[in-house]
Structure formats: structure tokens, C-alpha cells
Design goal:
Blueprint: H1 2-9, H2 14-30, E1 35-38, E2 41-44, H3 45-73, H4 100-116, H5 125-137, H6 143-162, H7 164-167, H8 171-174
Antiparallel strand pairs: 1-2
Helix pairs in contact: 1-5, 2-3, 3-4, 3-6, 4-5, 4-6, 5-6
């Protein structure tokens, strides 16, 4: 069962999402047509551009915000990192509060929801709950850590969304 939770927790890994965003940016620049054909529907490149312009600062801000709060609060993890007696192989040596994985996936899902603007995509927040549950199930966070991570990701994403026009006055020139 631990392998399930370990795989699920990767959905919130900031490093994996950073690499994924780089791949999406390369994909965006590699596409020469105005539309990308996806099954029977067509996705507009401007929608991908809007998502990328929102998600890049969201990932940076959620990673930095979580790390700064970890330094400020310096709350120890509920697990023992390896090597050690009774150690947890999933336990990092960093501080616990708030959960960076939860803040990252919350920021990404919120950014996706804000760009798409459709209530039918609210079910994607299940990913946030699953990643948060995986962090607790692996014993690397407490429930309060993942709740705080959720709010950090949500608040920082909403701030980036609110100030994106000032942030990207030059957006038409870059992407």
C-alpha cells in the first residue's frame, strides 16, 4: 500500500511539475499551427499560453512560499529520516509546515480551474485531496501541514491571478 501512496505523492512534487512545465513550454514553441488537434476537439494555443503564463509564477511562488514558511515555523516532521532507528524512507530532512507538495498541486489545479473557468472541472480538486492524503499516509506530514499547504497554494495562486496583468504587461511579446 505504501507504493501506492509513494506514487500518488509524486503528483505534488514541485520538481516534477517544474520539469513538466519546461516540457510544455518547449511543446508550445515547437507547435507551428494555430490549433493543436486533440481527439475530436481542438485546443487553442492561446489557452495553453494563458495557462503557462499563470502556472510558471504559481510554481515559483508556491515553492518559495512553502520553503519560507518552513524556515519561519521550523516545525519538525512527524517521521524519522533515514538513516536512523525506526526511520521512514520517505521522510525528508527538511521541516514539515506547510506541505510543499500540497501547495504545489493546489496551485496547479487552481490555475487550471481559473484558466478554464468551468465548474465541471472542480472534480480535479480530488487530486489535491489525494496528494494531501498521501503525504499524511506516508507519515511525512500531519493533517495541519497539508491543510496549511492547501491554503498557501490557493492564496498564492489567487494573488498571482489577481496581479497577472501587471506581471505580464509584455505577455504578447514573449509567448
Amino acid at each position: 500500500m505504501m507504493n501506492f501512496w509513494a506514487a500518488l505523492t509524486l503528483l505534488g512534487d514541485p520538481v516534477i511539475w517544474s520539469v513538466s512545465i519546461i516540457i510544455l513550454i518547449l511543446f508550445y514553441f515547437g507547435v507551428k499551427k494555430k490549433y493543436i488537434k486533440i481527439g475530436p476537439k481542438q485546443a487553442h494555443l492561446p489557452l495553453l499560453k494563458k495557462f503557462l503564463l499563470l502556472v510558471i509564477p504559481v510554481i515559483i511562488v508556491s515553492m518559495l512560499g512553502s520553503e519560507i514558511l518552513k524556515i519561519i515555523f521550523q516545525m519538525p516532521r512527524p517521521c524519522v529520516p533515514c538513516p536512523g532507528t525506526g526511520c521512514n524512507p520517505y521522510c525528508p530532512v527538511t521541516f514539515s509546515f506547510p506541505s510543499g507538495h500540497t501547495s504545489t498541486i493546489t496551485g496547479l489545479v487552481t490555475a487550471l480551474f481559473l484558466v478554464l473557468r468551468r465548474n465541471r472541472y472542480l472534480f480535479v480538486y480530488i487530486l489535491v485531496a489525494l496528494v494531501a492524503a498521501s503525504r499524511v499516509a506516508l507519515g511525512v506530514h500531519t493533517v495541519s501541514d497539508v491543510i496549511a499547504g492547501f491554503f498557501v497554494g490557493m492564496i498564492l495562486t489567487m494573488l498571482v491571478w489577481r496581479y497577472r496583468k501587471k506581471l505580464y504587461r509584455w505577455e504578447d511579446e514573449i509567448l
